[in-house]
Amino acid sequence: MNTPRRRFLGILAASAALVGPGSLRAALNTSGALPEPVTWRGVALGADAQLQLLHPDRAHAERLVRMAVAEVHRLEQVFSLYREDSALVRLNRAGRLDAPPLDLSRLLSQSIAFGDRTGGLFDPSVQTLWDLYAARVLAGLPLPPDPAELRAALATVDYRAIRIEADAIVLERPGMALTLNGIAQGYITDRVTELLRANGLEHAMIDLGEARSLGSPEPGRPWRAGIADPREPSRVLETIDLSNQALATSGGYGTPLDAGGRYTHLFDPHTGQATPRWRSVTVRAPDATTADALSTAFAQMPADTIRGIISRFPVQAWLMAPDDGTLIRLG
Description:
By secondary structure, this protein is α+β, with helices and mostly antiparallel strands. The protein folds into 3 domains: about 1-80 and about 180-215, no CATH class; about 85-170, ApbE-like superfamily (T-fold, Orthogonal Bundle); about 220-330, Roll (T-fold), CATH 3.10.520. It has helices at about 15-20, 25-30, 60-80, 85-95, 100-115, 125-140, 145-155, 185-200, 290-300, 305-310; strands at about 10-15, 40-45, 45-55, 95-100, 160-165, 170, 205, 210-215, 225-230, 230-240, 245-250, 280-285, 315-320, 325-330. The protein has a 9-stranded mixed sheet. Strands 4-6-5 form a 3-stranded antiparallel sheet. Strands 9-10 form a two-stranded antiparallel sheet. Strand 7 (about 205) and strand 8 form a beta hairpin.
């Protein structure tokens, strides 16, 4: 079940030499003395995407655009579950992947660390639960699955059974399968951000499903991102400042498995249930990988447990209650 994404992704970036004391957004929309921004439009991470870049050297700007787009597509080839030849699909198919891409080993190592830090509520091995729920939906069967089916699927779920060796990744349980959908967008966002920064772009807002900022859109003012109301997406519940920080939101409303939206893609790795505790969870963190992983894990956690975790991280969380839509800020 691959739900098409309608979200518009984008990158807005500029050289500090051009932005100067003005506004980046204004500079990108100004003609005349400033060069025309280099603009790319296409598809990235399964959604419509746009990249706008302002630089005094147009040829260099065009190279950077090509580099950013190529980096996104390269990492999709590593992490995608919908490309038959991706590294992740090949690992799931065989239960072992020799000479894995460095990005896959690195992100799985980070995933295991997040599993440890969240008491196992971040777990990339929940793909078998997705397969079970999706098969029932396609067959027209009711949710949740039968207890015996859940027990069988849960027998394959344990992030600690992912073994990362120097030259291989091994899934130690038969039937085990991984998904990195709860962290890969954040990781890709970080890689593109680092690529742009390494090539001299000090001011940018990168939104590849998770957002990360560099610099500022104008002097003395941070970038800002909004938390949308899941019940009315055009309505912003709260605006959050981002100063060289990242923001990620997880919500079951994005991928409902049933008509009523009760069952979602956010699974509890301990019970196999697909009914998250919160309508949405937003996390602000120093990097998008952390924000993405923690927003995924927090979806199944009570507020007191989340407080304990964020006391050990430089992060904040906004939790939307499922009943009255109250937004609770922690941290």
